[in-house]
Specification:
The complex is a heterodimer.
Chain A: E1 4-7, E2 10-14, E3 20-25, E4 33-38, E5 45-50, E6 56-59, E7 62-67, E8 72-77, E9 86-96, E10 99-104, E11 108-113
Parallel strand pairs in A: 2-11
Antiparallel strand pairs in A: 1-3, 3-8, 4-5, 4-9, 6-7, 7-8, 9-10, 9-11
Chain B: E1 4-7, E2 10-13, E3 19-25, E4 31-38, E5 42-51, E6 54-57, E7 65-66, E8 76-78, E9 87-94, E10 106-107, E11 111-115
Parallel strand pairs in B: 2-11
Antiparallel strand pairs in B: 1-3, 3-8, 4-5, 4-9, 5-6, 7-8, 9-10, 9-11
The chains are: A mainly beta, B mainly beta.
Chain lengths: 114, 116
């Protein structure tokens, strides 16, 4: 119930394409869904996040789509660029006791080719 | 510059030789956490700390210890490392605010540990 299942494991798209990374969860107590971006040799960094009370959030070329009934959310990267090549992690947070806990998906390695 | 600093960045050691990976943050964050990253397994939490002297187990705490004697520091201790602890380790910190714990996580650049 604490898992977030992420797919695909890796993805190659051409410049200008729209890669889509999907995540699914079971625990309906999850209430915060961030995406982290990690470049080689660096730590992950927060990219964009969404709460379950909205179905979509856009920040620049990055969009999260959220389907509460299906318990799925996805990251879309519009007009992808070689500089977007990185590993992307979805995550989900829920409240337990006096704190929240955050669990990560297994990551998607994205390569954007010229 | 706001940052999370880990040391060492790279370490090769042998089974059973105690080691400590240090982590320090300069953002006055209450929350700190250690993760390990392994291929195909993503980021798994080892231990976390809500504040000084308050620590708790994450999902994979076996073989690790932590301490939080000061707000800015959160060292990870491997008392008797084994080869299955070969991994890439990340320290992260976050504010506790708005009922969300952790909030935005700020990660260090990672420590790659190899245990022979």
């Amino acid at each position: 119930q604490q898992q977030v299942k992420q797919s695909p494991q890796s993805l190659i798209v051409q410049k200008g394409g729209i890669p889509i990374i999907n995540c699914a969860y079971e625990n309906t107590a999850f209430d915060y869904f961030p995406w982290y971006q990690q470049f080689p040799g660096k730590g992950p960094a927060l990219l964009i996040a969404i709460r379950p009370d909205v179905s979509e959030k856009k920040e620049g070329r990055f969009t999260i789509s959220f389907n509460k009934s299906a318990k799925q959310f996805s990251l879309h990267i519009m007009d992808s660029q070689p500089g977007d090549s990185a590993t992307y992690f979805c995550a989900a947070s829920w409240v337990t006791g006096t704190a929240s806990k955050l669990t990560f998906g297994t990551g998607t390695r994205l390569q954007v080719t010229l | 510059e706001a940052q999370v600093t880990q040391n060492p960045r790279y370490l090769i050691t042998v089974t059973g030789k105690k080691l400590t990976v240090t982590c320090s943050q300069n953002m006055n964050h209450e929350y700190m956490s250690w993760y390990r990253q392994d291929p195909g397994l993503g980021l798994r939490q080892i231990y976390y700390s809500m504040n000084v002297e308050v620590t708790d187990k994450g999902d994979v705490p076996e073989g690790y210890k932590v301490s939080r004697k000061e707000k800015r520091n959160f060292p990870l201790i491997l008392e008797s490392p084994s080869p299955n602890q070969t991994s890439l380790y990340f320290c992260a910190s976050s504010l506790i605010a708005g009922g969300l714990v952790p909030g935005e996580l700020f990660f260090g650049e990672g420590s790659r540990l190899t245990v022979l």
